[in-house]
Write a structure and sequence with these properties.
Blueprint: H1 55-61, H2 63-81, H3 88-115, H4 122-135, H5 139-168, E1 178-182, E2 185-189, E3 199-202, E4 212-214, E5 218-222, H6 224-227, E6 233-236, E7 240-241, E8 246-247, E9 252-256, H7 264-275, H8 281-306, H9 317-331, H10 334-353, E10 356-358, H11 361-366, E11 372-376, E12 382-393, H12 397-408, H13 414-422, E13 432-437, E14 441-446, E15 449-454, H14 456-461, E16 476-482, E17 485-496, H15 500-509, E18 513-517, H16 522-532, E19 536-538, H17 543-555, E20 560-564, H18 570-575, E21 578-582, H19 588-593, E22 596-598, H20 604-639, H21 645-664
Parallel strand pairs: 11-18, 11-20, 18-19, 20-21, 21-22
Antiparallel strand pairs: 1-2, 1-3, 3-9, 4-7, 4-9, 5-6, 5-8, 10-22, 12-17, 13-14, 14-15, 15-16, 16-17
Amino acid sequence: MKLNTSKEHIDQDGKECCSGDTPVLVKHAKEHNHAPHEGHDHDHDHDHDHGGGSESSLLKSHWMLWLSLALLLGVLFVSFVLKIEIDRNVEIVLMLVAYVLAGNKTIATAFRRVMRGDLFNEFTLMTIATIGAFYIGEFSEGVAVMIFYEIGELFQDLAVSRSKRSIKALLDIRPEQVTVIRDGKDVQVAPASVAIGETIVVKAGEKVALDGTLKSLHGTFNTAALTGESVPDQKNQNEPVLAGMINTEKSVEVEVTALFKDSKLSRILEMVQEATGRKAPTQLLISRLAKIYTPIVFLLAVLIILLPYFFVSNYIFDQWLYRGMVFLVIACPCALTISIPLGYFGGIGLASRNGILVKGANFLDVITKIDTLVSDKTGTLTKGVFKVQKVETALDINDFILKTASLESYSTHPVAKAVVVHAADLTLIKPTEVEEISGHGLKGKVGEDLMLAGNLKLLDKFQVAYPRELGNIAETIVAVALNGSYAGYITIADEIKEDAMEAVLELKKLGIETIMLSGDKKAVVSHIAGQLQIDRSYGNLLPEDKVRIVEQLKAEGKHIAFAGDGVNDAPVIALADVGIAMGALGSDVAIETADIVIQNDQPLKIASAIKVGKITKSIVYQNISAAMAVKVLVMILGAGGIATLWEAVFADVGVALLAILNAFRIQGKKI
């Protein structure tokens, strides 16, 4: 089982810093109260609130930054627009005040980092560069560097806050109170106090608080929060209803089948809490490079300042110090350390909005390398619900169905239930003298007729002659004999999901081979595979056979995603490069083991998950390429004395903002 146990994103203070770390949405909360962790601050001690605060509150909390900007603009306006000369000492005081207002927390963070031996980080880099600007008398430029750096950080906070909305919305869809029927009265209680077997009342417009089965005859539910689908879901009596669904019509009663902490929604929330903490390989690479990159940048800045002393005849220290400061400013790796984790976080958010739960950024990377999708059949590509496909008889068809369904009503077998459901409009006759013959079917009397209903082995057992071509039928067959003579047959098949064919075609467009594994008989598996145009299929498999086949495919160098929903699929889900579980009706073990959960059970979402991975990876690499290209160019210009500190500021902040905006584009993508 793949567990989300990565702790690499937490620094020594237990906070999250900018060096390539993924923003953490939430920490593990108490068992019944998963509250978001608010206060991710890049080890910056800023009043950033990426998860909980609104954008307006974020802007208001930076009042010192806005005051600093006003002071800077005021001084520049008086000096350059009004052409009024400001006293040098007054200018210094005003700029120092503006500098402290804008950069006090950056300076404090740099000091703490240095005190614990961490000399090479962006906070120290920005502090040294701006103090250097003050040293050489470029007061306004030093303040501008700090202000625009802080504005860049603020834009990052705003972008992260907005990116989190789609995921954080899940944290708000569980009601705090639920109406439970106790001693014949409606009582308002906390969902965590409701026991399995109790009945809750969900009024029109209310959210379902716990998983259960519908006791009312009918109900209509909005499942968008769980599945991303806005189409209302019609539920009938005894069908499952999940926490997080919204009752859209009349009040209904639901019998609770799982405790609050064990509901599918609670598990989804726990997975969301863990999801943003797992780093993608690209992020880990940037984190490692940052540890090498930053000291090299400091060394180069020192060399730019001091080395010309030995080679330049008219060496002026302040001039080369200025060039070193420009080099330091533009070398700040903000664009990379901000946009890369933000890009992956945006990908997780995009997937979540489309009913796909990705348990970590690393899986967004891995899924782009998949070349083979191995899938279970029942519950993954088919609905897992048996349905009558064909009725063949020489008798009156309604009479034939009535008598067969009447006998089958004695059995609880899924095939028997399918026959009974097919005869829902008919008034059944209670069978008598019923005998269930294990592995064969049923024998009994319906009215005055002695009937047999089961597989062909049942007819063989009672020496009833039947057409031999019945043995070639791929579907499950219910053969029927009436008073010792063959009367006809009914074929039963698992219904293919509506989007299964489209899903296979989309995967083929992405260049992915499709393979279906099933424990069902080969004829049935081959028939379904042919209908769906699946490349290869295997039937009559035990769970260990599925593991063996996937191991063999991996040995051939295939990059495999496995999609399944049952307990028996869990070993293969864990073995695959990317394990995908059908989350609406899938087993708990499969969901917990999987790396990606399809919340509405639609196989088409598998292709969507791959597309999200490709979109995310593309934008992340765009940001890396653009940021590095601009930085290298401006660093060269700065070292050569061509670029000024102003240009360095705008290049650094500009690239960071463009990278953030590019990462934010993920949120608007259609898949």
